[in-house]
Amino acid sequence: MKASKNPIHAVSRWIRRQPPKMKVFLAVLSVIAALVFLKMVVEDNDNLFVAAETVHALGTCVLIYKLSKEKTCAGLSLKSQELTALFLAVRLYCSFVMEYDIHTLLDSATLGTTLWVIYMIRFNLRSSYMSDKDNFGIYYVVIPCAVLSMFIHPSTSHHWFNRICWAFCVYLEAISVLPQLRVMQNIEIVEPFTAHYVFALGVARFLSCAHWVIQVFDTQGRLLTALGYGLWPFMVLLSEIVQTFILADFCYYYVKSLIGGQLVVRLPSGVV
């Protein structure tokens, strides 16, 4: 009787009973359906990128609310916030020297709120910071991105240093959330505000990825030529796809917990 009255729970239970291959198929089908829907309802594809940056900024505002209300930074990764601030700062530099538009303003707002979160974790709420759980070595992220950007970067007419910076922030953004995912894997139970923030990142990354994928289809591949030659166009698309799928598992468990009426997200070991 309850199942018939709540079709969402019935669908959720049906999905959980499916074998892994069927779940992968359903996930791919859902992504394709979402892309088709966005292509139909969004006239200007650039609005998807603006929406992605807006959602990211809103997610950071959720963190600020958590820090201000609960007076604790438990469950948050300082390293992820520092990586986020780093790629935003580099992207802002590229935006100022290459082009100045609405993205510059949104990135400035997000960088400002991210720096405030870093300050709160480092100083005001240091006692609640789980440094033992935040054990992902950021040099495993920054150094490979820096080296890769030196060899694979845009072939535009801009100065070579600016082109390397552009590539570096693209690569770093794709994997900057890894320390936060490691923290959540270590504690296995994610409280609501942190879960909302990470889910917002997942939505933002999907919208950004959708922007590039739809653009490629709309221009029949000409966008890739406009980005340059060599491996750079492929790496841009790969970075967008990677940063989306990195958060896919968490977003699944987030929605699952939300449908089940749970206030926290429980992650099985090995998800991240």
Automatic annotation (TrEMBL):
Superkingdom field: Eukaryota
- UniProt keyword annotation of Zinc-finger present: no
Which species?
Answer: Theobroma cacao (Cacao)
Keywords for this entry? Endoplasmic reticulum, ER-Golgi transport, Membrane, Protein transport, Receptor, Transmembrane, Transmembrane helix, Transport
The UniProt entry's GO biological process terms, in alphabetical order, are:
protein retention in ER lumen; protein transport; vesicle-mediated transport
Protein name per its UniProtKB record: ER lumen protein-retaining receptor C28H8.4
Q: Which Pfam families match?
A: ER_lumen_recept
UniProt family annotation = Belongs to the ERD2 family.
